[in-house]
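Retro notes
What went well: the complex prediction finally ran end to end.
Inputs used:
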Amino acid sequence: MKKKCFMVVVVALAVSFLMGAPFCYSAEPIKIAGIFALTGRAAHIGTSQRDAVILAIDDVNQKGGINGRMLEMVMGDTESNPTKAVMALKKVLESQDVVAIIGPTLTGTAMAMRGFIEKEKIPTFMHSGGDVILKAPLDKKDPNSMPKWTFKSPYKAADAMGKICQYMSKHGIKNIGFLYSNEGFGKDGLRNVMVQAPKYGVTVAAQEAFQPRDIDITAQLTRINAKNVDGIIAWTVGPAMGIIAKNIKQLGIKAPLFECHGAGDPIFWKVAGEAGEGVMMPSTKIVVGDQLPDTDVQKKKIIDYVKAYNEKFKHEPGTMVAYGADAAFIVIEAIKKAGPDRAKIRDAIENTKGYVGMSGIYNISPQDHNGLSMKDIVMIKATKGSWKLLE
Amino acid sequence: MNTLLKQKDILGFGALAVIIIILPLFVESKYYFIVLNVIGLNTIVVVGLNLLIGFAGQISLGHAAFYGLGSYFSGILTVNYGFPLWPAMVVGMMATGAVAYLIGYPSLKLRGHYLVMATLGFGIIINILMGELEQFTGGHDGLMGIPPLAIGGLIFDNDLKNFYLIWSFVFLCMLAARNLLNSRVGRALRAISGSEVAANSLGVNTADYKVKVFVLSAMFASISGSLYAHYITFISPSSYDFHYSIQVVTMVIVGGMGSLWGSLLGAGVLTCISEALHVAKQYHIIAYGVFLCLVLVFLPEGILMGIINIFLKKKTQQNIIKANRQ
């Protein structure tokens, strides 16, 4: 009997594989693909970006779609893994009429997909952080072979670092310690701080690395503190954000702590708890929308979007949500302008000028497939479970 | 050839060849091709690993590293040093074999599962090195622009061409494994997996055979890694982490330890299931786990032998009933 049950399960799984994968849609809607890290190590970012994109699409559809045609999203999961990301890409491209792609979440998955995207000639708006996506030529031998179909919504990591250094130098912090997680993101931060800090007259007096899964970072902090620094930058996302904040309080270090541009998320309070109080970081304006001056052109848009997000998902959006939302809205605007044609959509995205988004004002050009600048970044301070706008 | 290949195997390999040749006539979608290609790549690793697990009775938790070494040797030599494609692959294979020998030689002399510990640590070290040796590997940003493989003017630059390439290698690797197992070496390996002490007392140099089969299985993984690098054209350390090592060991166990065709089935079933379960959204990992538990509880010998056994049991039962009636 047991074995019969098992066989039923196996047959059911086999059948679901054979007919489950590609869903059937009517020809009417315009299809865009969303590829996110829905599972795996970046799932907390991927799922909130997915929500952001769903909200953007719902918004358009409620207003009657584009020329009467509804938008529909075909979804793919990268599992935070490069191979699976390429598989997800091929899967969403199964439906020939997908006109554009939004995603993926992680830089590694984005890099694996990039070559195939350029070959398939499909406009793709990524929301992964690494600048390398736009900076690295497609062919190593030809430095001019820049990606043509790939765009990305988060501002450059170098600008985020520049913003911190600028803020520090303005507030008399000249001697700093740099603490980074020993993986791609942290290493990228190290390279950036070495370039940006001297520009603003800030000296990196100490640099220490830790492993992303470390549960205690007091040793590194003690060494940094021994250099009498008057500010510390910690470059990491994930649980270590909170561990560093806690360790600093335990050691009684007085130097203010700055974290990276991914920290402005509800998850920060989950991992840091009360120790998070007073930590400063660069962020998109989405988390401090109501504190913006009324003259800010982004203010109304952000407040409306955050309200809708709150109503639908019952929690506050984090800074990463802005990237997902902007990628979706810019692609949707391009479809409105160009119609459902891949090449025309690409050109329309590339000609996006002065678009007011959640993360900033996008001025995309053939030379700059991102379009944000340091002006779009704000400094915020973690205060009582929420965020306070500094400047 | 005929002496080595028994009738049943001629049938099996013939069927495999025919399926490989005619399958593209029925499959149009690029997505199914990439799934098939990933199955092929996994199969090569799993066949090699199964030689080690199923026949030498040793477990390796570092096959992601050997797979990665193949990829990185091919990638680095062709991208950074302009090496020709096929020789780079061969160099990768040889170098990976040499590395495996260095690890296997001391740890396989010891009795017990010391190889597990050695390969576990080795796998993690290699994964860290891939990220840290930035000037060679491109670090965590990965190594991009790896050229596709080519034979003369035939460039393997799309899913269909890669399908034929990868599955030719699957075919050859399986054939090689099959012939190896039916040779004197194979019989020695079977003896070791039956009883190491008995094999030893009959004059089989068990440590030596175990090292050799470990090196061979690392080389299989390296071939697969090279093919992967030239197919996806981009590699980064996250493809070669500890999870991949676990994944291939799971494929060996689900397919059936010591069963060549089981390796193919294990790689196929697990790759497909993990793709198909995406319909379960965030629950897909749970569903995957439940599936693995079901297989291990109800089909502990693996899917292939398990299903065969179910049929055999039914037959014997029927025979007994028949006999009782008479």
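What we learned: Chain B has a mean pLDDT of 90.
What to try next: split runs per interface for comparison.
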